[in-house]
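Reader question, answered in our methods column.
A reader sent in the components of a multi-part assembly and asked whether the whole thing could be modeled at once rather than chain by chain. We filled in our standard form and ran it. Here is what they sent:
COMPLEX SIZE: two components
ENTRIES:
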Amino acid sequence: MFVDLIQNTLDGLTSGAAYALLAVGFTLIFGVLRRVNLSYGPAIMFGCYAATWFHVHFQGGLLLLAVITIAGTVLAGAYVERLCFAPHRDGSAIAAMVASFALWMQLEELAILAMPKHLYAFPALYEGRPLALGPFSLRVEALLMLLVTVATCVALHRLLYRSRFGLAVRAVIEQPVAAQLAGIDLPGIFVRIFAVASLVGAIAGYLIVSSSEQVTPMLGMWSTLKGMLAMMLGGLGSLPGAVLGGLALGLIEAHSQWFFGPQVRDLTAYLLLFILLALRPSGLWTTTRSAS
Amino acid sequence: MDDYTIGVLTNIGLFSFLALSAYLLLITGEMSFGQQAFFGIGAYCAGILTAMYGVSLPLAAIAAMALGALAALLVGLPTLRLKGLYFAMATLAAAEMIRILFELLHFQRTVEGELLGPDGTQGFRGIRWVFESGVEPLHYLALIYVVLAVVLGLFAWIERSRLGATLRSLGQDPELAASLGVDVNRLKLGVAAAAGALAALGGVLYAHHNTYIEPRNFDIMLGIHSLAYALIGGLGTTFGPLLGVVVDIGLVEGSRVFEGYRMIVFGGLVAVLLVFRPRGLLDERVVHWLRARFS
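And here is the structure of the entire assembly that came back:
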């Protein structure tokens, strides 16, 4: 029992790490643009499909596939930004969101047209036996996932808190109008933050598909939902909150799956989100500014 | 009319209810990601009543609408004070919970030697009241459009009345509306309940057209589609959401020209359309112009 609890916690932290990255990407876009990008997950799915397509036809190495995943995601992200967010910069948030939904449909159908089977195998991050630590087993790819997640978060932290670009981004998050008055180029920041968010999302996507060793078109909807869920759990627009929200989501899922099975697992996550929103809409970790 | 045309027209009618339900909330300034759940509740409730207990369709529809309204009230009570994305996420969470409850719902009984009822993810088949009562597909189509016409009549009447102006004022500026003496919370709850009942009504008709329903018919995709329909068609008039449904199901799916590329065409069309018309084809300005022209 006790051993299982710890094992579940370890597993939960691993999937939580991927959720945390998804939430960080989502939060970057939401925090800076104040817009919901429903195409965030589908762009990641598109990148993973591009890598899978390459692997099916030419057999690529792990690193090459990672590069293709990132390139594909950033490309799809740029397309979404140009068509859904650049034109609605000062306009309607709902129109931007619905437009991003429209492109989700496009990206999903494109992926299905290029690769019509429902499921494709993706090369594993690590093929070998899990590490045994006493009674616990730790998958090596899980360890890699945690490491990459931590490295990504550290890099992101340096970018946002130690560079001029980061200063500008934080200024835009805090006070968009004042930031613009101070001479910060808002459209430029938007484009670059979209690229950074796509990059983070692509890393998350790559980790997810290479540890589950499969790709399906459902990855798009799944990533958007998990990213949004983790972001909301952590409180909108806060980066540390997004990381904690992702980890919390992973832990909640791992434990409720062990106790009640997979269907109740999803139910628990939504129920917690619902209660949290009803009682404490600012999230578990309060943010500086609330969304409107 | 051939079967294909009847099928397309039926679908346009059915999803119009859901689009109108999303529209009703949108004009009062709330964006719900969860109307598909009430559509599902209507479908399941009426299916259980007609297929398992032999209740007639009209009675089952009334019961389903009541249940849809009740469920919408229960979701609305703790969430309606939330705004924007918070409200959208809360309704999404509620709708996904309801969908998972459909997956967990195993409730079957034997009717005339056949095991009927919802069977979790396996779905719920045999909702044959329409067929067994000898209603032809064409007549069922007519029934759907008569009900839809009644709903549209109600909408038109409300939009002309004081209530319609009050509802739109809620969407424009709730604080101003409250300062003018509008009971914002009560009115919003009423709107949520009405939208829930309307979605449930659509679900009733959907279940009896398809005869088979399963939990994933009512997933988030359906919800975002209904929002998109309302927004593409336009937020200026009740006909906006209908136009949105016609554009998607009628033109893109129905014309069969874009077989296999439907979503690519539809998705691109919508994104480009929203660049030029962010409040849809029939937005307030166009509607105003049309009214000035023809009345």
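What stands out: The mean pLDDT of chain B is 90. Chain B touches chain A through 44 residues (CB under 8 Å).
Send us your own complexes using the same form.
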